Amino acid sequence: MIRTPLRPLARILQARAKGENPDVIERENLRQRHEEMAVKSRQRAEGRLLVLGAFFLCAFFVIGGRMAMMATSEPAEPAVYTAGSMIANQRADITDRQGRILATNFETHSLYAQPPQMIDPIMVAEKLVEIFPDLDKGRLLKDFTGKRKFVWIKKKISPEQKQAVHDIGDPGLLFGPREMRLYPNGRLAAHVLGGAGFGKEGVTAAEVIGVAGVEKQFDAYLRDPANGGTPLQLSLDLTVQAASEQVLYGGMKLMNAKGATSILMDVETGEVISVVSLPDFDPNNRPAPPVSGNDPSVSPLFNRAVQGVYELGSTFKIFTAAQAMELGIAGPNTVIDTRGPLRWGKFSIRDFRFYGNEMPVTKIIVKSSNIGTARLAQQIGVERQRAFLEELGMLEATPFEIVEAQGGKPLLPPNWSELSAMTISYGHGLSTTPMHLAAGYAAIANGGRYVKPTVIKQSGPQAGVRVMSEETAAASRMMLRKVVSEGTASFAEVPGYQVGGKTGTADKPRPQGGYYEDKVIATFASIFPANDPKYALIVTLDEPEISAHGEQRRTAGWTAAPVAAEMIQRVAPLLGLRPHVEPAQVTGITLTSN
Questions:
Q1: Residue-wise pLDDT tens for the chain (594 aa)?
Q2: Of 89, 103, 297, which Cα lies nearest the Cα of 214?
Q3: In terms of CATH architecture, what is 239-285+304-571?
Q4: What are phi and psi of 95, to 5 degrees?
Q5: Distance between CA 563 and CA 541 in Å, rounded?
Q6: Which H helix or E strand runs over 335?
Q7: Which of 110, 174, 199, 514 fits a 20 to 30 Å CA distance from 255?
Q8: CA nearest 307: which of 321, 295, 320?
């Protein structure tokens, strides 16, 4: 910036030459300079006012717009986060089909220590060991008297334990608020719920994550704040589940079984109303997975319903009969050659006892003839048998929505030969889970449509793929009914409820190959009421044995069938099924006229 001099030399010399006062020139230039400065100051002030006005105008529009958005939006609970840690604390509840709580959150505290703040570390260690006997006193003393500035003592404690620690009165003991997962029904539906644990952990918060079951399968949903805390509603019925567990546990003990499982499934919707696996566990105190041993079934964490891959024996025979009828190979009354033994190469197929040289298909199922079923399989053929079992979902892991189900993939024969087709027809050579079997029997019960088993409550029936005609399904149901009323499952009869089903007793395989001679997997697969089926029920016992009539009995007709009958008698009223009472014949009364 170039300023005009206040006393320019040229003008000063001219003024002196004319006899004028040069100070006038200086005062005039000074006045002009002040006027220019005043104009620039006014322009600068006006510019600042304009910018400030624009800023306030923008702020007004932003705040007004935000207020308008809040006024028109639905009110929502904000996600809860711990300051500085960004650990989400909320997890949605899990309920049964009636809305009863199966899993929820519980406010608790963690316990930690800051040794530099402690007054008497030795006394604190002694008191803590009295409150928490599982703590190591020596380890606590080492941590409290060493150089450590922070020590985790307990990740979660009860209110009573918190009060006891508070009574110690040492400023070095501190509590951190957090939430934990609570299962108010204890062991009930433990294998379905699975359990939860802590993920990211901080002093004042801990992330609750699913570790098994539906807790892990639906972990993203349960943790998503966008769901607004909407509970995950399962298909299970709490009262039916409790009754099923009680009956199955009693049956397992009575039959001296190593383990047991049961599945109750709605044949129209695919909803699993109850699923039990024994032995079980308390998800509030989930045990550690086994670290040694080759048999996973010894762990209570093992879910026999979806992880137990077994040869399910004669329960498969009804599928062979149904396919034969569907293909037009045979009808319920078609006579089949049952002379035995049936030889294929160096192998022989025999029946449990001699039933005759020929039998109709219905009697083959009622008497559970291996030879008759194998002859039907020969006529069906390898490719058609495999395709039919694939349609029934028997060759892949079930879509049941818990993470453990993914590991229950059926064991197929390495070479599906004609011999394999014959043995598979009566339940040997193909290993599946009880959940597979439940879905297969549901297809027979609902008129021939395959429905996927699900643990999520459904709004209505599934439109499943048709795997057999309604006529074939009806004929198959008739056969299953006769198995109970006339055949191997007479102990499954329940007064007032027509039960149809099939027993299956399979030798248990040895880990090193071959089969045990005195250990079996006994299964009873059933539908009820047989005249209008609503539910399919599977009961499987691992290594059952009971003494009856002076003999050791292991077959499903003596073990699994009576357990299933007791379960149906207990749960049918809970499901709203009214018993059908047959009218008794009036006797001893004579009609007379007046």
A1: 566 676 677 767 777 677 777 777 767 777 777 787 888 888 888 888 888 888 888 888 888 888 887 777 654 434 434 444 455 557 899 999 999 999 999 888 889 999 999 999 999 999 999 999 999 999 999 989 988 899 989 888 888 999 999 999 999 999 988 888 999 999 999 999 999 988 877 776 778 899 999 999 999 999 998 888 899 999 999 999 999 999 999 999 999 999 999 999 999 999 999 999 999 999 998 988 876 666 777 889 999 999 999 999 999 999 999 999 999 999 999 999 998 788 888 888 988 888 888 999 999 999 999 999 999 999 999 999 999 999 999 999 999 999 999 989 999 999 999 999 999 999 999 999 999 999 999 999 999 999 999 999 999 999 899 999 999 999 999 999 999 999 999 999 999 999 999 999 999 888 787 888 889 999 999 999 999 999 999 999 999 999 887 788 899 999 999 999 999 999 999 999 988 766 555 555 554 444
A2: 103
A3: 3-Layer(aba) Sandwich (3.40)
A4: -125, 165
A5: 10
A6: strand 335-337
A7: 514
A8: 295
Structure tokens at 447: 């008129």
| pTM of the predicted structure, to 2 decimals | 0.80
Q: What does the block give as tokens for 295?
A: 């048999």
Q: What are the sequence ranges of the domains in the chain?
A: 1-31, 94-233, 239-285+304-571
CATH number of 94-233: 3.90.1310.10
Residue 432, both tokens = 């599946």
Structure tokens at 373: 């079923």
Is the preceding omega at residue 529 within 30 degrees of 0, hence cis?
A: yes
The residues facing 173 across adjacent strands are 113
Determine the Cα–Cα distance for residues 547 and 553; give it in Å rounded to an integer: 6
